[in-house]
Amino acid sequence: MAGETMTECTVGDVAAPSRNALVGGPFGSDLVSRDYVPGGVPVIRGANMGHGRWVDGEFVYVTSEKAESLASNCAKPGDLVFTQRGTLGQVALVPKKGADRYLISQSQMKVTLDPEKADALFLYYVFISSEQQTYIRQNAITTGVPHTNLGILRNTPLTLPPLPEQKAIAHILGTLDDKIELNRRMNATLEAMARALFQSWLVDFDPVRAKLDGHQPAGLDAATAALFPAHFQDSPLGHIPQGWTVEPVGDVVDCVGGGTPSTAEPKFWEGGTHHWTTPKDFSSLQAPVLLDTDRKITDAGLAKISSGLLPAGTLLLSSRAPVGYLAIAAMPVAINQGFIALKCNERASNFFMLNWCQTNMAGIESRATGTTFAEISKQNFRPILVELPPKELMAAFTEKVAPLYAQITANLHQSRVLATLRDALLPKLLSGELSVAVGAEETGVVA
């Protein structure tokens, strides 16, 4: 982009020339929790930000009448939504395939752009750039809870290329995000397939029930069907298939904890090459696979952790802050004290234990104790009873779902590469250091 083609302006300059193009949420008393209803007009809250380009997640709703009474605070498809207080710097687009209008909460602001001046997707990428994020932080109001306001947003300076170039840049970056989003949806489907098989075979016992009714189990070859009995037996957990056992989980898999070497001791951290994880690494996982960690530790640091370096394939369960994050480590990893690590085996594979933990999470959480924050100790976790099929059936289940989790892992790796490429291209395209044509060539996108 040649410098002379750039336009210096503000967000207010590119807002649509219409009433309420740039507004915040309603006054506190105008929207309260008792206004929420099971369905209707979705409300954009903080929980709906931070999901990528689009407002997403679990919505709450208000009636059409309530939304109409707050019409000036509504956003429509194509609008940009900004966090006003909370996690500053969050920005998202209202999707064009969602509802026809959304009500923004008291903690959000929205802008409707003039389509002749600015492309909404391009501005989304402008606002997630490191330069713009720095501007937001530096101009935040720091009294009380850090926040921003409409005046700051309205006067935020922008440097914009011509509209066709905005659209071209947004297309390049958006194509990369489209593939990342496709991978996320594929992974959700693959994970659901694994959960459905676990539920059918190992929770609902559908093949056993079919045999009990004199039917051939649906969808199973003869060899697999033969692994299921035709009768049930009593157990401490109720009726289970004949030949299965009920045992404490701590007797089936090795459950270990971790630790944190002194953060004030450089020799434990500087130049570290071993992955070391905390539950914070799990907060943004989009699938139950851990590919990387925020911090690495040295050999000296590793020696301070009793569980040492856990092998790839270890199932990690966060035991506090919060209880319930789950992921299979894709690489050897050490853990801090916020985890129970399950070192699985042929009696209970990591894929079986992952699905078992997901299915039984309410019971696991019920064993958590603590006044400051809930925590489940290894002592309270190990006695939980688990229903175990024979080794042959465990192996058959593992063999069925292993390719699903392998594809999930491959998709996650590809998305990481795409995100790295997007993040590298973003500042170069926005600044003009890299032309649209070159950016399209590097990504394989037709500009």
| Largest beta-sheet details | 5 strands, mixed
The amount of helix comes to 25-40%
* Corresponding CATH superfamily of the largest domain: DNA methylase specificity domains
Radius of gyration: 26 Å
- The CATH class of the largest domain: Alpha Beta
pLDDT < 50 runs, ≥5 residues: none
The helix-and-strand class reads alpha+beta
What's the number of domains?
3
The CATH level-2 architecture of the largest domain is identified as Alpha-Beta Complex
Widest β-sheet, arrangement of strands: 14-21-18-19-16
The fraction of residues in strands falls at 15-25%
Tally of DSSP helical segments = 15
Counting DSSP E segments of at least 2 residues, the number of strands comes to 22
Key words describing this protein structure:
Adenine-n6-DNA-methyltransferase TaqI, Chain A, domain 2; alpha+beta; 447 residues; 3 domains; 22 strands; 36% helix; Helix Hairpins; four-stranded antiparallel β-sheet; five-stranded mixed β-sheet
Descriptive notes:
With 447 residues, the chain is an alpha+beta fold. The chain folds into 3 domains: 3-160, Alpha-Beta Complex (Adenine-n6-DNA-methyltransferase TaqI, Chain A, domain 2), CATH 3.90.220.20; 163-243 and 389-447, Bipartite methylase S protein (Helix Hairpins, Orthogonal Bundle); 245-373, DNA methylase specificity domains (Adenine-n6-DNA-methyltransferase TaqI, Chain A, domain 2, Alpha-Beta Complex), CATH 3.90.220. It has 15 helices and 22 strands. The protein has helices at residues 11-14, 64-69, 120-128, 130-138, 150-154, 163-203, 206-212, 222-225, 249-252, 299-302, 350-359, 361-366, 378-381, 391-431, 436-443, and strands at residues 7-10, 22-24, 41-44, 60-62, 74-75, 80-83, 91-93, 102-104, 108-111, 157-160, 232-233, 240-241, 245-248, 254-256, 274-277, 289-290, 295-297, 315-319, 323-329, 334-335, 339-343, 385-388. Helix 6 crosses helix 11 (350-359). It is globular. The model has no long low-confidence stretch (mean pLDDT 94).
